[in-house]
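Worked Example 4.2. Consider the chain below.
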Amino acid sequence: MSLHPGQVVEFQGKEHPIQLGVVLAVTPKGVRLLQLNRKETTVTERTILHTTAQAKASPADLDACWETARRIDEKRGRLATGIDLGELHALLGDDPRGYSLAEMAGFLADSGDEDAEAALLRRLTTDAFYFRQRKEGFVPVPAAEVKTALEREQKRTAQEAEDEALYQELKAAAAAGPVGPFPRVAAVLEALVQVLLMEAEAPVPKRLHEVLERAGLHQPRPLFGFLVRMGRLAPDENLDLLRNKVPVAFSDSLLAEAERLAGSPPSLDGRRDLRTLSTWAIDSETTRDRDDAFSIEANDHGITLWIHVSDVAAWIPPGSPLDAEACRRGTTLYMPEGNIPMLPPEISEGALSLTAAGDRPALTWEIGLSGDGSVTSHDLYRSVIRVTHPTDYAAADGRLEAEPELAAAVRLGGLLRERRRQAGALLIERQPELKLTLGPEGVKLGYRPANSPTSDTIMEFMVLANHLAARRCQEKGLPCLYRSQEPPETKPDLPVTFQPVAFFQALRSFRKTVLGPNPGPHASLGVNPYCQVTSPLRRYSDLLIQRQLAADLEGLPPPYDREGFQQALQRSDEATRLAESLMRNRQDYWLLTFLRQEMAAGRDSFPGVVVDLSPTDVYVYFELTCEFRHCRRPSADLAVGQRVSIRVKKADPFEGMFRFEVVP
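Applying the procedure from the previous section yields the following structure tokens:
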């Protein structure tokens, strides 16, 4: 290719496939061109795809040179717009050989028309559907391939138009909220929820992520706010439940099955009739699914204690739909905004809950105790009871002087606790229990006292029943889930009243509880062996063990052998661990919401106590939330036991972020 100044060329540029330029000079380094943006550039000869035969402008006058280039570029642009490559392909497609640019342009204009050739080059470069450039020239693409490529391009163009329309709707909806018709947004709302929950892993088209990024909604927080404004999510939506696909309701078929069972309770034949006993069911004030109750009587030989547990095993057989659902849920979730029960409320809060609603089938431990609280006899059997005194801890504590039975139960609870202490139990006064209340005015904090006499008593009765259940499983060889705990290397200081420092140090010294098929001592409880069976309405593992015991009482082989028990347990264990994590996270969410409220009201400092120090961190007891927290150690001197101020710097419930500093 012979090049000289003044020629007009079409060349491959960096920003555009084809650009027009005027040759200013040919140098050893390349060809210097004047571009349409009035800037000069140097290119190699191989990037020049078309050139005029003669000079069209004089490089001596750059303004005139640029004006000539602009006129030629506009002309070629108009010509390119009018070229129909489809018609040219129809003309040449039957002879699929290589065509030169000049030969092809000859079918469109007069031979040697340089502008027509350049215009055709532009079309061929930007539209690769009909011809492919090869060494031998431009080769027609087979007609079938052209058809397929054009259909694909039409779909792409239509999709781009649809994406642009969705983008515009997203922007409008973000500004207006749910007001107005936004059909495209409505069609993708569920996909947007999936993007929020799973981010890049969401099973949605990649293009949706791109549209969201353009609309500024690709990050979780703005996307969550958008979905709230659209009414798809609540302002305090529990995203963990959605993310983990936790069922919050029961299917119609399960509800129907629960109603059927509630309407046709199992036979009471063969059960020991304990309906004449005075029976107490005491739990927290919000509890509706009561699993346990007790009766107590003094006699010439000491005390008889009956511990009753709802006989869920008699109602829900293994492998039934309700059993499968309870296994899938693993446990009841208790959260500040409400509970998600393991079993339908018709059963867990109705037919099987130990309330004053009539006859209830139960599994009962009848235990004889001496005056010092030692067990002299015990028996386990199926019974029918009537709860005569359903109440809560606070109300029961207030009735101790007026109710001799309650007072006797509390005295017995104290004896049982002391006997466990003598047996090596690591008994430490619990910290106050935080109670969150949600209402129109926001989150409020309340506290249940740690030293509730009736709460401690019920705990002692449940420890005793669980110990006796584990002992029976051990003696009878019934597969069971035992709970054991090794003693600490050094026995911690265990004060009588709650003290943050001693409590924290004691917690650190406790070994982890081990769950397994083999019995062993439980150091902090001071019993050997131990399992949990007293909450079959709330914990699936308790229901499994109750079935083992109930079958043994009937003289039947246990429904689960060792392998079957482990398999059934494993199916629910993952759900149980998830449930515990969800409950902790939700408690934290509402605590952070409360702290954010306080900060908005100008309150950001709260009392605390230093419970431990490390070279880099300080551990404190946050009195407001009854929690142990840690942060970076300040430069000021601190001492364990020192009272400090905890200054909240950030409380973000959405991110689960809590940052604070300790001020002496």
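The chain is about 40% helix and 20% strand. Residues 380 and 635 are 61 Å apart (CA to CA). Compare this with Example 4.1 before moving on.
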